[in-house]
Amino acid sequence: MHSIHIEVSADVRAALDAHRPVVALESTIISHGMPFPENLEVALAVEQVIRENGAVPATIALLNGVPHVGMTRDQIEVLARAGRTVTKCSRRDLPYVIAKKLHGATTVSATMELAHMCGIEVFATGGIGGVHRGAETSWDISTDLKEFSRTPVMVVSAGAKAILDLPKTLEYLETEGVLVLGYRTSEFPAFYTPSSGLALSHRADTPDEIAAMHIASRSLGSPAGMLVANPIPAEHAMDKQVIDTAIARALADASAQGIVGKEVTPFLLARLCDITEKSSLTANIALVKNNARLGALVAVSLAAQRA
Ligand code: PSU
Ligand code: MN
């Protein structure tokens, strides 16, 4: 068993001890995914959506090297104001940030790992990392994808952004034995738009079905997590032409400026926000809340089915 100290907030601790529903939230979306002050407003609003739907939110980050699961408003504000100066922390970065006693904002992979260590099984976010376009030469494949194969946490997301190579991302997940479940859709959603044209093999139409599949996965003893792909609601979706053009420009800028490694995703997210004059941010906020709601409903169902 692990022996590292994790600072679990009192409300999250109480919920876990009583087997009540808890939903994990990541913090890179706060520090590196959105500008201040919208990032702070969204982080707090998303927690509220989870509470309104019957679960306890557990925002995860490292403060002075200590992993925190469940954070206060003031702690979230520290990350929101610090923005991209906080260390973006994927699984490989955790030992460094812990030993150096740094602040770290957790990506999907590190959030899954810390959530799992605390017994949290449901995690809601916006988009996951994936196989980048040009990966056949750059080898840029997010460690988020590998994490799904070894950590049994369900992640509710709006699919993956078309800054990525979506067909390769789905192929990678299939190779790693990860169930990708469309929620009320048979297509993989493309984050800002509800569809990518890529068919999914599996779908679910109710939170109960999703929870039952997670229970089945756990009862098989599978180490794998699950990706629940929840499309952006139609009324908040962006125009495909507008977002595709913005993505092409952002990718060209990244390439011209020689952006590589862990800087790629934050750079692209910030460029998209600028290029679209924040209309991408408005869509992003709507879909994160939508994912938080579904995450809470699934966590509630999971607790009920196990009771
Ligand atoms: N995609 C988004 N928004 C985000 C991220 C990805 O649409 O905020 C963040 C998540 O924290 C994700 C991380 O885990 O970026 C992936 O980074 P990379 O591509 O460097 O693995
Ligand atoms: Mn990468």
Automatic annotation (TrEMBL):
Sorted keywords for this record are:
Glycosidase, Hydrolase, Lyase, Manganese, Metal-binding
InterPro entries linked to this entry: Indigdn_synthA-like, PsuG
Q: Which residues form the signal peptide?
A: none
One Pfam family this chain carries? Indigoidine_A
Q: Does the keyword Mitochondrion apply?
A: no
The answer, when asked if Metal-binding is one of the entry's keywords, is yes
GO MF annotations in UniProt: hydrolase activity, acting on glycosyl bonds
PANTHER family registered for this protein in UniProt: CARBOHYDRATE KINASE PFKB DOMAIN-CONTAINING PROTEIN, ZGC:136858
Q: What is this protein called?
A: Pseudouridine-5'-phosphate glycosidase
- Native source organism of the sequence: Paratrimastix pyriformis
